[in-house]
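Figure caption, in words: inputs first, then the predicted bound structure.
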Amino acid sequence: MSSKKERKSKNMFQAPKGTRDILPEEQIYWEKIRQVVQKVAKSYGFERLDTPILEEEGLFIKGTGSSTDIVQKEMYSLKTKGGDRLVLRPEFTPAFIRAYLEDGLSSRPHPLKLYTTGPLFRYERSQKGRYRQHEQANFEIIGENDPVLDAQLIQVFFSIVGGLGLKDIVAQINSIGCRQCRPAYRKKLVNFYNKRKGELCFDCQKRLRQNPLRLLDCKDDRCVLINEETPQTIDNLCLDCHNHFKNVLEYLDELEIPYILNSRLVRGLDYYTKTVFEIWPEEEAGRQSALGGGGRYDNLIKILGGKETSGVGFGLGIDRLVNFIKEKNIKVSSESLPSIFLVQLGELGKKKALKLFEDLRRANIKVASQFSKNTMNAQLKSADKMKVPFALILGQKEALDGTVIIRDMKSGSQETVLWEKVIKELKKRVKK
Ligand code: AMP
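Bound structure (adenosine monophosphate present):
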C-alpha cells in the first residue's frame, strides 16, 4: 500500500477528499446494519422508497432552508450541460416529500410509512466519523400529527440499535414549537442575544440575523457559556405544542425509552416543528456525533407545494454506527461465510470440480474454491485461512471413480463418498 504522498507524486488517482472505499472485509458491518434496518422497517409496516441521488437544487433551498449550514456551506451543486442546477442529495426528507407529491403517494392511505438507505453528500470538513459521502437509513411517517407517532418512531430507532446488540443508548429530546409560538420565542432570543452580541462567536453573530435558533446548539465555548442563561424553548411553547410534547414524553415513558430533555437541541433545519430528537451512546452524549436524529415537520409538505400535511422522520448514520459497533467490539457474524472448500487436482479433477461447485451452490451449500491454484497444499492453506469446517478433495483418481473425499479440517480425518451422496453427506455434517 503506497502512502498518499507517494501516490500523488506518481500522479495516481485517489478517492476524493472525505470519501472512502468500503473494503470487502468491512462489508460484513454494512450488510448487517442494512439487514437489521430492513427487518425492523418491515416489522413496523414501513415500505421502501428509493429516490435519485441527484435532485433539483431548489428542492433543498426551499425545503431544508436557505440559511441552513447544509444549503449555505455543504451542498455539492452542479450545472448540467442543459443548464439545470442539480445537487447530490445532502439529506433525504425533502426528496421523500418531493416523491410523495410527484408520484401520487399523497392519495394512498395515511399515515404513510416510508424508509430507505443510501448515500448522502455534504461538503464538510472531513475528519474521522465525518465524511463528504456518508450513508444513512431514513424513516418517515407522513400524514398525521399524533404524538404517538413521534414516540413510535424513536422506538423504531431503538429497535434497530437493539437489534445490532448495542446497549446504553439514550434519546435527547426537545420541542421547538410551531408557527404559532416560534415567532415570539425567536423575538425573545434575538433580544437576549443582541444584548450580548459582543460575546458571541463570529459565526453566531452572523447567524443571529438569519437563524437565531441555531445559536442554541453552538459548540463554541463562549456561546456555550451564554447559552446557560438563554430563554428555553420548552418554557415558550403554545398550549398545543406543550401538550403534544408532554404526550410524546408520556409515550416514551410507557415504552421505557431512556431520554434526556435537552433544551439546546434545535437540529438546524428550517422545517422542523415541535419534536426534535437525537440518539446518542450514553457515555458520549455531547461529544462526537449522534448516531442519528430527526423530528417533526408539520409545514414542509405545504412549503413544497402540497396540502397542509404533517410528518415526522429520522436519519440514522450508518458510517457512525459501523464505527461504534467496532469500538464496542460487537461480534457481527456473516451468514455468507463458506462452510466447504472444494480442492481440485489434475486436469480431470478440475473439470469435475467445476461441475460439482455448481451442484453444491444450487443445493445452497456455501462453497469456496480456487480453481487457478493447482497444488493440494496451496488450496488446503486457503481452506484453513477461511476457517471452513470441511474440504472436499477431487483429484484424478476420484474423478475416474465418481467419488470425492470429505476432509474434516479440524481432525484431518477423511472419508471417500460417491458423488451422488456428497450433498446429503455434507448437509448432515454442516448441520451438526
Ligand atoms: P443529520 O442528517 O445531520 O441529522 O445526520 C444524521 C446522522 O447521520 C448523524 O447523527 C450522523 O450519525 C450521520 N451523519 C451526518 N453527517 C455525517 C457525515 N458527514 N459523515 C458521517 N456521518 C454523518
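The first helix runs from residue 4 to 9.
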